[in-house]
Amino acid sequence: AENLKAQEEVNSLKGLGQHLENLLKLASIELGDFSDDDMALIDKCAQLYTCLHIHDFDLNYLRDLYFSRKRDHIENRQTMVQQKTQLRRVKEAIDEAAKDVAGLERFKSTAEKRLIPESVVQQRNKQICATKQGLMDRQKAFAMPKEFSIEDIMEKVESLERH
Question: What are the residues whose beta carbons fall under 8 Å from the beta carbon of 13, sequence distance 6 or more?
Answer without folding.
Answer: 49, 50, 55
